[in-house]
Amino acid sequence: MLCVGITFAQQHVTVRGRITDGESGAPLEGASVKIKENPRSGTPVSGSTGGFLIRAHQGQILQVNMLGYANKEIPIDGQNHDVVIKLDRSVNELTEVVVTGALGIKRSSRELGTSAQSVNNEELNLGKVVNPLLALSSKVAGLRINATDQTTGKTDPGIQIRMRGTRSLNRSKNDPIYVVDGVPLPNITRINPNDIADITVLKGANAAALYGSEGVNGAIMITTKSGKTGAGEVNFSNSTTFANVFLLPPAQKAFGQGQNGVYSAVSAESWGDRFNGEMRDFGLPINGIQPTKLYAAPARDNRLDFFDTGVTVQNDLSFSGGDAKSSYFLSLQDVRLKGVIPHDKSSRTGVRFNGTRSFDKLTTSFNANYVLFKNNTTSDGPWLSVYTQPANIDYNEAREWEDPSSPNHPLNWYNPVAGTRNPIFMANNNRNTANQHTLNSKLEFTYDFTDWFSVTNRTGYYLQAEAGRVTNKKLVSNIATRNINGTLNDSGRDFTRLNNDFMLNFRKEFGEFTTRLLLGHNIRMDDAKLINVQANNLLFEDIFNQGSRTGELSGGSTITQYRSLSTYGEFTMGYRNYLFLTLVGRNDRVSTLDPSNNSYFTPGVSASFVFTDAIAGPKNSKMLNYGRIYGSYNRTGNVTLDPYRLNLTYSQTNGFPYGSLVGFTPSLIEPNSRLKPEFVTSYEGGLQLGFLDSRLNADITYAYSDSDGQIFNAGISRATGFNSTYVNAGRMINNTLEVMLNGSAIRSQDIDLQFGINFTFTDTKAKDLYAGNEFNIFRQAYAIKDEPYPTLRMTDFERHEGKIVLDQSGNVLPSEEEVILGTMVPPYLFGFNTQFRYKEFSIGFQVDSRLGSWMYSEVIPRMYSAGTHPETVKYDRQPFLMPNTVIKQDDGTFTENTNVLSQGDKDWWTKYGAIQTTTAAKADYLKLRELYIGYALPNSVVQRQGVFKKASIGLVGNNVFIIKHSSNQIGDPEALYNQTDGYSSFRQIPTSRSFGFNINMTF
């Protein structure tokens, strides 16, 4: 829709307008506007509100071009004030799209010398997930997303996101930058996915060069919805899903509680005799009465009864509208989550307002999003208690723990050891609660001085305030091991970010050349404050107050500030709309480095050539309708140092210098004022093709990055007075191949079949390391020179000529040297998605596969030790002759094992489970991640009633099924612990699958 106001000044007129989608009425950003008779008039591009400004003469023709839309020509006659013109979608230009580039600027994909991939609202919300990042899983080539189980994150899992591999040896510094409506945000997990119009993934530092250090890992560019011109619109949707855990590690159900084959009424380990179905004593007498329990394992896995059915209910309501000069979008969301762990729950309530307004040459836009998130979850312990306890425990009965006469009460539980308390009581007694307030907002002004020069100032403000409380109820018993010291920890976390970009935009045509120059200045100010106060020995069971305690309080406060100042520029020149060259430069100054080294420059260059428009043969081909080659080079400075790491800090030490005198000792980390940024040199090249009128499209990209001079803490000689110092050392190399295929297998009025396939191969290797050829990252994860990063290295069985070595008592022996199993990050990623529509029925699904990596679990050795692992009953708990083994003699020689029996008892299986390779498995999997089946009411039905304009209902499933490697008895390879790779902690709970329904109505 184009609203034109014409002001006469002699023969010149000023044409001002607004361009919108002819079907939806939404403003179109990035549309090209020019005067047909005057190619030197400049080429304005419509802004975020669809508005533009250009000078012309009366009687000339205004041309409006937009990729994906049919071109439009409008005569300028001075009489067409506020005329509504709709741009119609064109099915012949599906290969070329408009993407959200750096700084939130809309650009034609043909201009880009780098790879970028967009995901629209429909694709994003296929699985109706609450977290928008999880919705991106397997939809974008080169992007790997994992849900991570944090200590307090059972209903709000953390997210690990990696783009084109790992660049930094600092595990917490590999996330991309998140940008919402042009404003960088530290976190986007609280954004309502239904508010998102589309997400563009800018892959690597080449595509996100304008962001400097923060763009070194790529950028996730989010554009939220805006108002639509015309009559107002109201949308309501409800999504309700039900989740149940699956992929539990297998457990044996043959033997019950006890030790050395003998039943024990108070043992929590499964080393007793075989289940026989008789009634036996269970635990200690209660008020002189001995409880009993059936000594048998149920046919159903009893551990499943510990978990609840999780429920997620999302309700969304939005209002949108607008006219020629303004638009608005208002949304409300309420989400209620019930976790699979008993008593776990959370809620999220949010409101968003997006508004725009044009005032002659001034265009303004304002966004504000507020979210209140409440979380109430258990901490570590309950699930750990479940998988190590015997198979005859009834967890439905365990839920009645509040009855003081019940054997399920914590003072009466059959086993008094703290680690095996009633897990339902543990979940209820140890609670983490938090109230989190998140506000992000943007205020933007654009002033068009002329049709070729404009100025934009964009200010973003982000605030997150969280008040948390961790409580552990006091429990007093005459049995010491049942006692619980009541604890209380109150915490407060506040974070604010002020971001401001001031940009000068120049656009001009010179004959067959088009030019665009962007000059900008950025200021970033981050402030964080963390406070916690803890009491570790409360006096009363029902009073949670630090004043009601014995002993001293613990805790403290931390205040940090970060500042950056940046200047950047981008120049793009195009020739006849098929050849483009872009130059990028950015200079950053950051507060975390010493002033002598805190300024650094990032240069970049990229080019794009649409050869089907330039060469006559391909241009007229019906088989190949679109072809483009592109490439880029970039050298990005990167600072992964947290604030104050180069300050020499002091801490108070008891008894120093002596007695009660107060003294302070310096940190053992030497502040290195010579520390510089690391630099990431990256190259990228690609080929984009469209076949058969864009029914089949292909994009093939190769990317290389070299991260040199990495910043990390390295050990030094203690003779210096320090233990370590931050240094520039270490190098990481990434090679990535990405292949994307998408198209329309069937495209008609009644039947439509769309599909998309993406494949990624990533080879990440650690190169030069500071000290030696390796260092430990976490647990069994290592950085080893010239090996894939990270590498899984573990102890194996000692072997001789391929056979397992036993000692003379029949026990397994660990290898003297650890063995390398392989990478802990899948080098091969596959994603397949399809959407099929027949009239009003639609089906969509997403398949995800990851191959080539290893994982390990700390659950497995604990199950071996507790006697719950199925391997421990392999030989019926009897001495056995272990096959394919040799005996190690005193003189170091080996003999074939023909008569040395392994005992097969707790001690033997504990040693067996301590061999770390028994905990490892191939992490290959193929998963049906998302499934949607929907039905939309036909127009004939909708038109007969006057209540709503559109309505649909659907069924949805997530994690519907998984096919995993036969060696994997651990669980879901995608579920990680915190920011690790390939590691499944003894703390984290199993993965869930969910099914549900959703309803959508438009009024």
Automatic annotation (TrEMBL):
Family membership: Belongs to the TonB-dependent receptor family.
Keyword Ion transport: yes
Record's protein name: SusC/RagA family TonB-linked outer membrane protein
Alphabetized UniProt keyword annotations: Cell outer membrane, Ion transport, Iron, Iron transport, Membrane, TonB box, Transmembrane, Transmembrane beta strand, Transport
Principal subcellular localisation of the protein: membrane
InterPro entries: Beta-barrel_TonB, Beta-barrel_TonB_sf, CarboxyPept-like_regulatory, Plug_dom, Plug_dom_sf, TonB-dep_OMP_SusC/RagA, TonB-dep_OMP_SusC/RagA_CS, TonB-dep_rcpt-like
Domain TonB-dependent receptor plug per the UniProt entry, residue ranges: 110-219
Entry membrane topology: Multi-pass membrane protein
Compartment(s) where it occurs, according to its Swiss-Prot or TrEMBL record: Cell outer membrane
All copies of domain TonB-dependent receptor-like beta-barrel, residue ranges: 402-775
